[in-house]
Write a structure and sequence with these properties.
With about 325 residues, the protein is mainly α. About 65% of the residues lie in helices and about 0% in strands. It has a two-stranded antiparallel sheet with strand order 1-2.
């Protein structure tokens, strides 16, 4: 019997990389826990805060969810969606109708459970809408995809505007006012946590590969269609979550609140913060939500100044306020 050659290379099983970088994932979990605890603490003492400023802070949290979730589609995957307001509308109307239907049947102590279920249901319905958009349009990109998503957003708006069960053109009123600072900012923290961990996981690197070069990604075995659809579904879910929070914050929904300009507003947040930069998009969402309130003292000129500032920022910093050099970092 021939003896084994001791110098021959030994076969070893391939080393599997962790799904998510452990130090980064552990740090993200700590930040998520800290953010949720801080949001709950603010909610506990919210009676001592100015209601106007508290309402603006809730608006900031909702816009953070919308901007970060759209950044997964437009920034990390390289698509160009103009239908995020449509996903928000699906989630908002679904959650509001669910709450209005079941609230009279449940005791007061069950309201948090009902609200949680309404938000999840709204997110799932929006995710289903994202799947419905992503599957037939997966071969499109750039301007063509933008047109498809824009058409979807308008179809959703017209549907709610003509459906009596959802209030039609007069809107849906009487929605319980359950969205607090804690709910809005906990949702924002969860959105950031999921998107960051997803993108920095082994699976999530496929989003960046599809963004950088779809043909090259397909050549090395990455399925661009799967990643495009995943981005649409996950992004739409969180847009629906934001819609549910919005509905229970304003206590009234109107189809005009989810028109083309709402989608453009979210896209501007992503572009201004730097596409594919989570931190930059978050800062841009905060700035663009607070800016109209800061300019409110200028009365009739407020929106003119707001638009002018955005135009100037786009001209002076077309790559985004928080993108420096040629780095392709994803944070």
């Amino acid at each position: 019997m021939a003896s084994a050659n001791p110098t021959a290379p030994q076969e070893t099983s391939p080393r599997r990389e962790p799904a998510v970088d452990p130090p980064r994932f552990a740090g993200a979990k700590r930040w998520l826990l800290a953010a949720v605890l801080a949001a709950v603490a603010v909610t506990v003492f919210s009676e001592h805060f100015n209601r106007y400023y508290l309402g603006v802070a809730i608006d900031v949290g909702i816009n953070l969810i919308l901007a970060v979730s759209l950044n997964l589609i437009n920034g990390y995957t390289g698509q160009f969606s103009l239908g995020h307001a449509g996903f928000m509308a699906v989630g908002g109307y679904t959650a509001a109708k669910f709450s209005l239907t079941l609230q009279p049947m449940l005791p007061e102590w069950a309201q948090p459970v009902l609200f949680s279920a309404a938000l999840v249901l709204g997110g799932l319905m929006a995710a289903a809408a994202g799947l419905a958009v992503g599957v037939p349009s997966f071969r499109l990109r750039g301007d063509y995809l933008a047109i498809v998503t824009l058409g979807f957003g308008e179809i959703i708006r017209v549907f709610f505007q003509t459906t009596e069960a959802f209030g039609a053109a007069t809107g849906l009123a009487g929605i319980p006012n359950w969205t607090s600072f804690g709910w809005a900012w906990s949702g924002a923290a969860l959105t950031v946590f999921v998107v960051v961990c997803l993108v920095h996981s082994t699976y999530g690197r496929g989003f960046l590969a599809v963004r950088d070069d779809e043909i090259a990604a397909a050549a090395i075995g990455i399925n661009p269609v799967r990643y495009k659809i995943t981005a649409f579904v996950v992004g739409a879910f969180f847009a629906g979550l934001a819609g549910g929070l919005y509905a229970h914050h304003k206590s009234f929904l109107s189809p005009t609140g989810f028109d083309f300009m709402k989608s453009i507003e979210i896209v501007v947040m992503v572009i201004l913060g730097g596409m594919g930069r989570t931190v930059g998009v978050m800062v841009a969402a905060v700035v663009l939500t607070l800016l109209p309130e800061v300019l409110r003292g200028f009365a009739d000129y407020r929106m003119i100044l707001y638009s002018l500032l955005i135009v100037l920022l786009m001209i002076l910093r077309p790559q985004g306020l928080f993108v420096f050099g040629r780095s392709r970092r994803t944070l």
